[in-house]
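cron nightly-structures :: item 1 of 1
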Amino acid sequence: MRLLIIEDNRDLLLELTDFFETQGHVVDTAFDGITGLHLAVVNDYDVLILDLGLPGMDGLEMCRRLRDDAGKWQPVLMLTARDTLNDRLLGFEHGADDYLVKPFALKELQMRIQALARRGGGRQTTSILRCADLELNLETHQVKRDGKEIELTVIEFQILELLMRRSPKVVSKNEISFTIWGDNPPDADVLKVHIHHLRSAIDKPFTENLLQTVRGIGYKLQCRHALSS
């Protein structure tokens, strides 16, 4: 399995990482909610292990944004020291699939992760995003409009995927930069160049312009309809 562990207690994070790696799993880690959300959006994981109390963005908000804004549905197991019924219900309401109270036994965590991975493996995942006559295939990395294949660079593909997932909402320049480049974004002009190339590829040869600039904020795809399958 490929796991993402988001935990700000470095000792616990190291313990969990060592435990799962000895079981043969691939483990990515984050110490805060913002970095964790970025990793969860741009990568595919079998299960996310998410601490409730995180700096920058707490586990509840991160889980909500992962579900509602990014449309990602990997199973999420939430870790917390809070043990009331209301706390557990709040976690489920924000999109968590399971809930484990600290302290816990590693074997129990392992069994819960395995159960979540089995359930998640049968879930339908979004493989094709559509906006009007524009189509993006997440499995083959093909982009087509009106049936005609469009060649994009890796960065342009990632930008388009983000805009299509969020359509018709506006995506800020800062969010695009963070999603693509993380904490080390390039000069602002670099994003402008990628947007220019993307617009030329998906709009210039066609009669309807989909990619729109919202001055002072960012960009959006204005579609007659936005679908996924």
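cron nightly-structures :: done
The chain is about 40% helix and 20% strand.
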